[in-house]
Amino acid sequence: MYSAEQSFIKLTSDLAHIMQSKEYEHRDIIFLCIGSDRSIGDSLGPLVGTMLKEKKIPFEVYGTLETPIHAFNLEDTLKKITKRFKKSLIISIDASLGDEDHVGSAFLKKGPVVPGKALKKLLPKTGDFHITGVVNYVDPLPSTQFLNDTRLYIVRNLALAISEAIHQASLENVQHL
């Protein structure tokens, strides 16, 4: 867990380690930023994707505020990625709900993310690794209500921290080559 208050050094270091790993040496690194710009709580992925494009990182980025990757186009996007890149390393980025004390924190985990889980949507698992940002906490209210009641401040700060960590890791990766 990487809290918003903490430095993003650990997240940067972990991402750089993945990018520099011999295991993934000859794979195209792709950041798949999942979410919608129509709901603040679900906009983390597209915000991160937009920030990554603005930083001009040397990797492929799918999912921005202009062209979000969401429930209606995720499967088609995954097919396009599979067709275009024979050996890819996908790092998915998505918003999540969690415990109240984790709000504003980001998690980097090995394995696929399950997008739409909080809304009980059946979407394909995606990613070799995933970063989730906890944008709000779980409560007895319906999950859709939480995504709509999420503070933009939290989402923006998470997006800034995650995108900067990825940017710094990409700079370390370029220096490593």
Task: Please supply descriptive tags for the structure shown above.
177 residues; alpha/beta; Rossmann fold; hydrolase; protease
What would you say about this model in short?
By secondary structure, the protein is an alpha/beta fold. It has helices spanning 9-20, 44-55, 74-84, 143-148, 152-176, and strands at 2-3, 28-33, 60-62, 88-98, 105-110, 129-137. Helix 1 (9-20) crosses helix 5 (152-176) and helix 2 (44-55) packs across helix 5.
How large is the count of helical segments? 5
Mean pLDDT: 89
Report the uncertain regions: none
**CATH level-two architecture:** 3-Layer(aba) Sandwich
Q: What is the CATH H-level superfamily?
A: HybD-like
How many DSSP-defined strands? 6
Described by the principal axes of the CA atoms, the overall outline is globular
Computed CA radius of gyration, to the nearest angstrom: 15 Å
**Fraction of residues in H or I helices:** 25-40%
Number of domains: 1
CATH class: Alpha Beta
Instruction: Describe the strand arrangement of the main beta sheet, using strand numbers.
Output: 1-5-6-4-2-3
Please state the structural category.
alpha/beta
The CATH topology is given as Rossmann fold
User: What kind of sheet is the major sheet?
Assistant: 6 strands, mixed
Q: Could you give the distance between the termini?
A: 28 Å
The succession of helices and strands, N to C, reads EHEHEHEEEHH
- What proportion of the residues form beta strands (DSSP E)? 15-25%
